[in-house]
Design goal:
The complex is a heterodimer of chains A (45) and B (147). Chain A has 45 residues and is an all-alpha fold. In chain A, 58% of the residues lie in helices and 0% in strands. The longest helix of chain B is centred in the middle third of the chain and has 25 residues. The chains are: A mainly alpha (45), B mainly alpha (147).
Chain lengths: 45, 147
């Protein structure tokens, strides 16, 4: 869409916001991954 | 808002660091560190969160106001987690209703973890006295459940 001129160097706020939301979810999963899948992994099954 | 564009090299380095930390946290999960396992996992997670927030979310180049808002949000989240945990860890029977949960929070190793059947109450948590006094530890169990 950037090639089509939809977003430019002057107007890119939606891309910015989408990126922020993406990394917000990213941070949540950074914590969820060890808490859900890695804790107690060293314990005998 | 001052526009500051990091180089692709910077982003690549951060990405590699995040991948490396993911590998480290996965490998360290298979090593028995006792109660320290949770601490290590969460410490690595905090490092990764900082990398993502500072670089990918551009907090590093943001105004002081933005940084203040971020800190305020984290502080508020910490307050909520503290209050929830203070309830959860002091709740009666929480030790044996879900042994794994207490293990997660405190690192206290409880006998048959996760087994809340008949064997569960033979756990290593000190049983309370029969005089009705509260047990010394944070875990509170009613006297009739202890065998």
């Amino acid at each position: 869409m950037a090639y089509k001129g939809r977003f430019t160097a002057e107007y890119n706020t939606p891309v910015d916001i989408a990126g922020l939301y993406w990394h917000f979810v990213d941070i949540i999963w950074i914590f969820l991954f060890p808490l859900l899948y890695l804790i107690d992994r060293h314990l005998p099954k | 808002m001052t526009e500051h564009i990091d180089s692709i090299r910077t982003y690549t380095l951060v990405l590699l660091a995040l991948l490396a930390l993911t590998a480290v946290t996965t490998l360290v999960a298979f090593v028995d560190l006792g109660a320290f396992s949770v601490v290590v996992a969460l410490a690595i997670a905090v490092c990764k969160m900082l990398l993502v927030a500072l670089f990918f979310m551009h907090v590093r180049h943001s105004t002081k106001l933005t940084k203040l808002v971020v800190l305020g949000g984290l502080l508020w989240l910490a307050i909520l987690l503290m209050l929830t945990l203070s309830d959860f860890t002091t709740r009666a029977g929480s030790a044996c209703r879900d042994g794994r949960s207490l293990l997660h929070v405190t690192g206290v190793r409880i006998g048959a973890a996760g087994d809340c059947g008949t064997r569960t109450l033979a756990c290593s948590v000190p049983t309370p006295g029969t005089d009705g006094s509260r047990p010394a530890k944070r875990v509170r169990m009613s006297a009739d459940t202890a065998d």
